[in-house]
Design goal:
single chain, alpha/beta, ten-stranded mixed β-sheet, 9 helices
Length: 439
């Protein structure tokens, strides 16, 4: 049975297994399932998926309904946390919440489970107002998630609250013997004048065919500040489709940093919708892959109101037979005068077999704007390599230094020091060097 058919036939059993769910979600699920049934999984015939194929992935016989909790010791996974920092933590093992590894709160803010928010009456107004509000209901993979999602992170930051410590959302995969489909759903609502830092990590611990189809909705109210960091470092058997939707209101500032280092196939769909004036949106990313890994970044910034800014800066380093894709779009509505939109994709190919497809796009219907886009593809600077070799720096370390410098524009804007150090260590590990400094 094909995966699409398996999912459709499993839906009735899935819903029967839900107890006491939020009343309004049943119809939302049915509509989403119908969308997925009509459209199916995306193919390369679609322009947005022109360079990324899911055919090999869909040959796996995925288990689509989760089993019970898997016990994992803290010592086994502590290296994946911001362990030197006091943080709120939501930890999920194979899609199931791990209470003994997590640290939730309802003290002045809500850092808890989506399943709890969907069943408790006190969250009904928030769920009704914001759940599935900014997600693309016509996107087939988002619709699939909407139909089957039951668990994930629910974060609700009240008005004028400055969250004193970062929030971690950590998805760990430990399945060894079977292919597993996991569909986490996150809803993050940040109130007026509130400020929060969030780190989301996807990490497989053992080699297995885990397919994660994730959806995150972020709602930033007036003058809210949200710093969101994605660390994606699955083993080379994992697949991640990450759909993130950001709705911004007047004078809000949201930044999303995406660090893509692992996985067999990673697709990041990052969508920003500016629904107010004097909004600032920042999208930055670093991709470092090799072998036959594939990472596809698809971004959209929709400027719907005047006097707003957006900044996109993506760095890619590709080795082996890896493939990178950057498909970025800036849309400017006819009323969005005084828009300032910037988009840049810079890429380094370390191997003759590595490939990068870049497609920066501007779609502008206003006449008083300042928008630019650009893309570069090249190799490491041979003169710089020669200069460092002449000063006694070994070739491997010289190469790593140049790549660190290449990524510095993105790294310098990371506002959590320990995360910055962790990302630097991951980069050093990927490059096979031990650096005596931090970036």
């Amino acid at each position: 049975m094909e995966l699409k058919d398996k999912l459709i036939t499993s839906f009735v059993a899935f819903e029967q297994g839900l107890m006491g769910e939020h009343d309004g979600l049943h119809n939302i699920r049915l509509e989403a399932l119908k969308t997925f049934e009509d459209k199916g999984f995306p193919t390369k015939k679609e322009e947005a998926w022109k360079y990324t194929s899911l055919n090999a992935l869909l040959k796996n016989d995925f288990r689509v309904l989760p089993k019970g909790e898997v016990a994992v010791e803290y010592k086994e996974v502590k290296k994946y946390f911001l362990s030197d920092s006091d943080t709120y933590k939501l930890v999920f093992i194979n899609g199931i919440f791990s209470s003994h590894l997590s640290s939730t709160t309802h003290d002045g803010l809500d850092v808890c489970l989506m399943s709890a928010a969907l069943t408790k009456p006190k969250y009904k107004m928030v769920i009704d107002a914001f759940y599935n509000s900014c997600a693309d209901k016509e996107d087939s993979l988002t619709a699939l998630n909407t139909a089957f999602a039951t668990e994930g992170a629910f974060i609700n930051i009240p008005k004028s609250k400055v969250v004193a410590k970062p929030i971690e959302i950590i998805y760990l995969s430990t399945v060894e013997e079977e292919a597993l489909l996991v569909q986490p759903r996150n809803l993050i609502v940040v109130g007026e004048n509130a400020h929060v830092q969030i780190v989301e990590r996807h990490q497989s611990i053992v080699e297995s065919a885990v397919f994660t189809n994730s959806v995150t909705e972020i709602v930033a109210q007036k003058r809210a500040i949200v710093d969101f960091y994605k660390l994606q470092n699955d083993l080379e058997t994992g697949t991640l489709i990450d759909n993130t939707y950001v709705s911004q209101k007047q004078e809000s500032r949201v930044s999303v940093h995406t660090f893509s280092f692992g996985g067999k196939l990673t697709r990041n769909n990052l969508n920003f919708y500016q629904d107010g004036e004097r909004i600032d949106s920042t999208l930055k990313g670093i991709t470092l892959i090799d072998e036959k890994q594939h990472v596809d970044h698809y971004t959209l910034v929709s400027h719907n109101q005047p006097n707003c800014e957006s900044h996109q800066n993506y760095k890619g380093i590709y080795d082996g037979s890896s493939t990178g894709v950057f498909n970025g779009k800036i849309y400017v509505d006819k009323i969005a005068q005084k828009t300032d939109g910037f988009q840049q994709s810079n890429n380094i190919l370390l191997s003759e077999k590595a490939t990068i497809y870049a497609k920066p796009q501007l779609e502008i219907f206003a006449d008083d704007v300042k928008c630019s886009h650009g893309c570069t593809i090249g190799q490491l600077n041979e003169d710089a390599m020669f200069y460092m070799r002449q000063r006694g720096i070994p070739q491997k370390e010289a190469k790593a230094l140049l790549m660190y410098a290449f990524t510095d524009e993105v790294m310098e804007s990371v506002k959590i020091p320990e995360l910055k150090t962790k990302v630097a260590k991951v980069i050093a590990n990927k490059l096979g060097v031990s650096m005596g400094f931090e970036i």
